[in-house]
Design a protein that fits this description.
The chain is mainly β. Helices cover 0% and strands 50% of the residues. Strands 2, 4, 5, 6, 9, 10 and 11 form a seven-stranded mixed sheet that branches. The chain has a four-stranded antiparallel sheet with strand order 1-3-8-7, with no helix packed on it.
């Protein structure tokens, strides 16, 4: 059974930083694309970042490019999202996801069958 377990997040003032962590269990994720999404109240799930299998390439959504960094760890079975220069509009529930697809970039949440439980990020002004 595939599981993605998230940690990190919380509350921070505008301009601050947070790091999210997502660990995969149940199989080896070296050949999987792993990504991060977020969803605010009443909004659609938004693509933030994805990292290709084995960490060779990274892709970012326009709203976070230059502020967020995705990288892999734990022998490629985990993924981090380093978030800097946070803004109040970054407030949302954040989710990690994984897919066996490797035709990049993979930005549609429907292409990711595996999801973490979500973690709240709140940025105050």
């Amino acid at each position: 059974q595939v599981e993605l377990e998230q940690s990190g997040g919380g509350s921070v003032q505008a301009g601050g930083s947070l790091r999210l962590y997502c660990a995969g269990y149940g199989r080896t994720f070296t050949s999987y694309t792993m990504g991060w999404f977020r969803q605010g109240p009443g909004k659609e799930r938004e693509f933030l970042a994805a990292i290709a299998e084995r960490g060779h390439n990274r892709y970012y959504g326009d709203s976070v490019k230059g502020r967020f960094t995705i990288y892999r760890g734990n022998g490629m079975n985990a993924v981090y999202l380093q978030m800097n220069s946070l803004k109040p509009e970054d407030t949302a529930m954040y989710y990690c996801a994984a897919t066996e697809l490797t035709t990049h970039p993979i930005v549609d949440p429907n292409d990711y069958p595996y999801w973490g439980q979500g973690t709240q990020v709140t940025v105050s002004s």
